[in-house]
Amino acid sequence: MPRLPDARVDPSASANPQAGAQPACRAGAKSSARRGSTLARGLCALAALGWAITGLPEPLPDTCATRYPSDAAIAWTCHRVVRGDTPIGLFGPHWQDGLRFNRIDRRHLYPGVRIKLPLDSRQLRHFTPMPARYEAAAGEPKFLLVDLSEQFLGAYAYGKLVMAFPITSGSESDPALRTPDGPFRVTAYDRLHRSSVYDMENTDKPYPMHYALRFYTTPQGVEVWIHGRDLPGRAASHGCIGLYDEAMQRQYYGVPRRPVLDDARRLYEWAIAPHPDDGRLHAIGDGPTVLIVGRAP
User: Fold this and answer.
1) Cα Rg for the chain, rounded, in angstroms?
2) SS3 state of residue 158
């Protein structure tokens, strides 16, 4: 996978897309030109730009197309990211909350991507759609509430919200990849877990699932985890629940240059304490309750 340009993902640096595109898209653009289709050329060029920057064979992220119940609480407009845009330039000092509001990571914030841009960035401060108190968890020292309709997770101590994070879950479009709903419990943890099913794109390396908390095993033996991964601004996992892990992205993709967002680590360390962590897989019988509700948009 090609290295992503550091300038694109640093919160204070401007986007600097690489020139060029994949051969298949260039051929498509020539074909469109012969047909005189300006629109087709533009769309192909935009797709090529996304590929050149991310190496991901997927549509450009469009967080404006995904609506959450909490969207109504903040006035926003749809903005297409252009060269020179930065997280700080877009969202100001609350740039981390701006990314959380969009459920997107810095790796996926590049020219052509559409994001929700609040009219008043001050409304983003400490953004979370999760309730400050959840009475159903009042009797439990650690409780994880996952709202798929919001693509957000809340961690509660005796019913009080102590931390909340954006997630990416499985898509509703494919029942085989849907994140299960209902009550569960964390039954294992593994700081350096890796997928036994999926590889990183364009490699034969198992996909890293760092800071992993297992909460469900299917009748067929497939394990479902909460873990660090990319957040592309939509429900995009194979059923697991993904959290920000910029240290992993830096290690495997080379960006961001200075990792900041570490939600997966923060949740993992809170959830497993006081159990020891030596970086290996451990089963536990007293892990936090996990309640998953709603449906992914």
Assistant:
1) 20
2) coil
Nearest 5°: phi and psi at 226?
A: -100, 130
- Max Cα–Cα distance, the chain, nearest Å: 68
Give the neighbor-by-neighbor strand order of the sheet with 152-157.
Answer: 160-166, 152-157, 143-147, 289-293, 182-185
41 pLDDT higher than 90: no
Residues 34-55 have a mean pLDDT of 40
What is the end-to-end Cα distance of the chain in Å, rounded? Answer: 29
Say yes or no to pLDDT of 86 above 60. yes
**pTM attached to this predicted model:** 0.81
Q: 133-161 burial string, b = 16+ CB within 10 Å, else e?
A: ebeebeeeebbbbbbbebbbbbbbeebeb
- Report domain 135-293's class: mainly beta
Domain ranges of the chain: 1-127, 135-293
